[in-house]
Design a protein that fits this description.
single chain, 17 helices, mainly alpha, 2 domains, Serine Threonine Protein Phosphatase 5, Tetratricopeptide repeat
Length: 359
Amino acid sequence: MKHRTWFSALALVAILAAAEPALAQDGKKGLSFGTLDAANADTVKTQAEAWLKTAGMSDTVGQQFEAIWKQSERPVLDRLADSFALGNADAAKLISLVRDPMTPAPTDVPAILKNAELPAFFRANLGLAYARALNNRRIHEEALDVLKLFNAEQVVDPASYLFNRAVSEFSLLQKDEANRTIRRLLEEAGTFSPERYKAVAMLMQLDMVAWKSKDLNDIARKMKDVERRLDLARGGPKTQEKQKEIIARLDEIIKKLENQAKSQCQGQCNGGNCPGSATSGPASGMNPSAPASTSTSAQGNGGTGNVDPVKMAKAFQEWDRLPPRQREEFLQNLTAGMSPRHQEAIRNYFKNIAESRPR
């Protein structure tokens, strides 16, 4: 059985999270709040109304509240968040901003969610609605920070809490944490968890089984994360540190491949007559009638995947100033022998480097 790629897994996660429909409601059995079962819509409405009365509910607000809860096709969590917006101006502003894809990505947790003087029912469920909206915009760092303030037992939709937390952890490459959250989703909230949650959770689990540290797939995942951060206009020190880590990983792989090539050559050649050796051919170290050697290819004539680490670092630093031809030669040599998706990931990575730097 072939595992789906990390790219298709993350794409499916994003699609399903963004298109989250209403949860099915059980009109016959009231589900308890504070467990890993989903709370019944009528129960949540009653709790929301009680909270709204403490916030001061006028006749006009009461009419708006009733109109919100008549929208049975909408998720309970969305209706609850809109109810909070009716009674709290800060909540209204927070929900409005996070749902607007044109607003800049936040850089910290909103104060209203950390205010311990406010009811836990209000803060936890507003936080879940906020974190889910952040995940839909691929702002996974702050989504996870918000979710860590609360737990699944505090919200009206524990399955949504666990699913969104797993998406954040998976997207941020936190393998152990994501696996723990997924196990809770499948085992503790499994009965009331939507099928799409289960399907994506199992897909993420299968994908993480194949994760290995410092291989090309690991580099590709880190590149996608950097691209995401650059798309969010986060090109600061943290992103730059991640870029340096990627370059270091590529450097390690290149050196490993070079050493393997040298070992293979030494095993196959006799008497030091290995192409490029000090005793073979003319002083240039090359046989004029033989194909171009690794040293020539590293400069753009052929493409063997062997690139001088010093040249690679220099290209990284000067990428946005290099002529198009030199960029293409460098990329051909760097990605030679790699699979098409790795080639595309590396090309997109260097493209984003140029686009993210100030002009």
